[in-house]
Amino acid sequence: MTTEQSPASATSTRGDLRFLIIGAGMAGILSAIKLSEAGFGDYVLYEKADRLGGTWRENTYPGIACDVPSHFYSYSFALNPQWSHRFAPGSEIQAYFEDVARRYGVASRIRYGKQVTRCAFEDGRWKIELADGSTDTGDFVIAATGVLHHPAYPDIEGLGSFQGASFHSARWNHEVSLAGKRVGVIGTGSSAIQIVSAIVDEVGELTLFQRTPQWIAPAANPAYSDEEKTGFRKRPEAMQAIRAEVSRAFTQGFANVLVDAESPVLKLIHDTCVMNLENSVKDPALREKLRPSYRAACKRLVMSEDFYDAIQRPNAKLVTEAIERVEQSGVRTRDGCLHELDVLVLATGFHVDRFVRPMQVIGRNATVLDQVWKNGPFAHLALSVPGFPNFFLLNGPNSPVGNFSLIDVAELQCAYILQLVEQVRSGASDEVCASQVAMERFDAERKQAAKATIWNSGCKSWYLDRNGLPTAWPWTFDRFRHEMREPQLDDYEMRRRGAPA
Ligand code: N01
Question: Hey, which of 188, 190, 404 would you mutate to test ligand 1's pocket, going by the most ligand atoms within 8 Å of its Cβ?
């Protein structure tokens, strides 16, 4: 057993706190940069994979792109004049994070191939154990472990018997050529819609298995010209202006309205989606198959400029009959029809309630996080759990995930967490975490507010918990921004090390 510990950490003082960052995706890289800026030099990032990037490392399916405009889906302090399109493709985003991590000195702090399996608060410090048997200790843990990272495989009879190639959208098998093949895609979420649009011209036949239709918002994706990119390089304030404008438009025209199902703006969004369907799909029978029966934005809104074109190609077929089972040569639907396939893509989403798990997290008094979360994950203001001092989540449970830039969310959360850390650095406290009272108040108010959101208007989606209640931040983004400005210290339990419970 080895111990991954810097010499400084052995004699940690308040001015020399040690931070263990779990995950080297967007939020982990950000945490490292912000800790450095705040003067904390003793930190390490543990990454289970052999490459940074999180979501953008794992999702490499054809057509992958971010549905948040590139100049907004960038760190505010590291704008990128090179974005090729309004919505950047996944490979560019991956390259961006690699570049930022290198330029900000984070890359050298990442320990690759290091999966944290256990994290326990012992004697006032966090001790972590890794799958390879090594350990480390630190004063703080920042869990930057992502949201959509455990692929959900569908429970369909016979899936394992399929003789062709089959893989999840988040585990794309690039060894498999699609050229001229009969390809089936299960699912109609953002991943499936992008995949279908990207591969339809390459494959021989494309069959999309739709259980529930999706509203599609039109989203033009123009390329930035060389002149524009040169302009961004020479005048970074032009990128700042785009970022500010997109942020304003997203906040006012989208994020803020989703939390009020009665908002008239939602009606406009709905009408835009209806018009998109009416204007784009010629065949009335196909149009009706593609028409959802719920309100637009109840499920996460899918943005696409080319999906309706793709599904109307002569080699594309939409199957709405329920899947009966998968057989050796394809998918059999309930009407008895066998859809013969060479490749089957499972664009069936993610287990979204996992967060830091399967890592075992043990807090004060041997409290087990898995037990605390047995009825579903939660965190005060989406970042702190009572009984788990000096342990913070980024993009954790109840974060704003409704079509907003998760980078913006994480930046606000990081700035807030650093203010709590400051309580320890300044000597005001040794341990800080949300109080039980604050947590219960937050959770009760959150659940009440969730009922009024568009996500609660009568559809099934990954936004809902096992009781059917939306889990995402149910208030406006303005409120989130406001809450993140400064912690209300009364909501936190501050303790001296070793003080009685
Ligand atoms: O997953 P999803 P996703 N039989 O959960 C269907 C982000 N993202 O990977 O609707 C048949 O949305 C399921 O059907 P139904 C974004 O936040 C962003 O597409 O439950 N079908 C649904 O159609 C997004 O929301 C980007 O009836 C089955 C689909 O699979 C989130 O990731 C790109 C089934 C799952 O859709 C997740 O998107 C990609 C079964 N047994 C992803 N099981 C961008 O930035 C499931 N389904 C653009």
Answer: 190
